[in-house]
Amino acid sequence: MRSICYICINFGLRVSGNDGNFDSSFHHKCHVWLDVSYFAVNWCFAIFSANQLSDDLTFLQSETASVADSLVQSVDALTQMEGQVQQLSKAQDSLSTLQALQLRLDETEAASGEIDAGLTQLREVSARQNESMNDISEVTRHIATNLELVSGPLHSMITSAQQINQHSLQALIDFYKLSQGESDALASMEANLQLVYRGTSAMTSAMFNVDQSDNTRSLLVDLRRDLRPLRGQTRQYAQMDMSLERRVLGREIVTAVEKMIELSIQIQAGSLELANRTAAEANTLAQQTQAATADQIAASKTSAEVLDNALRLINQSNEGTRSVISDLTSSVEQLTLSLQSIPEVERQIETSLNAVQRAVASDQVERMDEAGNRALQAQKNAQTIPIVLLVFILIAFAISAVVAFYLQRLIVKPLANFVSGVRRVTDNDLRTRVTDEGAIGELKAVIGSVNEMIEGLRQNVLDMTQSGKNISESARLMANTSTKTRDALEQQKQGEQAIVDSTDALADMVRQVANSGSEAGERAREADEVIKQSQQDIENAKREMASLANTVSRSNEVIQSLKLQSDNIGQVISVIQNVSGQTNLLALNAAIEAARAGEHGRGFAVVADEVRQLAQRTSEATIEIRDLIEQIQAGSDQGVESMTEGLAQVARNTQATESVALSLESVIDQVATISRLNLEIGEHTRQQLQQLDSIEAGVESVRRQSEQASEAVLDNVSASENLNRTASTLGDLVKRFSI
Question: Which residue, 460, 526, 586, 656, has most beta carbons within 10 Å?
Answer without folding.
Answer: 460
